[in-house]
Amino acid sequence: MKEIDEIKAIALEYGQRQAPSILAKGEGEDAMSIIDAAFDLGLPVIEDEVLQRLLSGVGIGEEIPESLYRAVAVVLAWVFWLRGDEPADKVG
User: Fold this and answer.
1) What is the widest separation between alpha-carbon atoms in the chain?
2) For residue 77, which phi and psi values (nearest 5 degrees)?
3) Which of 7, 49, 69, 70 is most buried, most CB within 10 Å of its CB?
4) Using the 8-state DSSP alphabet, how is residue 15 labeled?
5) Tell me, what CATH number does 15's domain have?
6) CA separation (Å) from 2 to 11, 12, 24, 32?
7) How far is CA 73 from the centre of its chain?
């Protein structure tokens, strides 16, 4: 099990912009707060250290870079499947 100071989290948002964007990110206690909030809201939480590292350079509120579309699309497809949603249901 990881020590608290080793934990990192990034929250993604999709549907308000043309591309997914970073809603929140943090390390240690901040990361645990993000994860706990996601669980409290019934949002899916995945553990993917490679994707977390790739997204760590993107600022809060910024859209993800095009080079990461495919990786994030895999995560979003899984989330849509879990919830029984269709991607078109969430895109304005």
Assistant:
1) 40
2) -60, -40
3) 7
4) S
5) 3.40.1690.10
6) 19, 22, 21, 12
7) 11
Which has more confidence, 78 or 60? 60
Selection from 56, 5, 13 nearest residue 31 by Cα: 5
> Per DSSP, which regions of 1-92 are E strands?
8-13, 21-27
pTM: 0.80
* Domain assignment of residue 51, given as a range: 4-90
State the Cα–Cα distance between residues 84 and 4, nearest whole angstrom: 33
User: Confidence class of residue 5 from pLDDT cuts 50, 70 and 90?
Assistant: confident
For the chain, the domain total comes to 1
Residue 27, helix vs strand vs coil:
strand
Tens of pLDDT along 25-76?
999 999 999 999 999 999 889 899 999 999 999 999 999 999 999 999 898 8
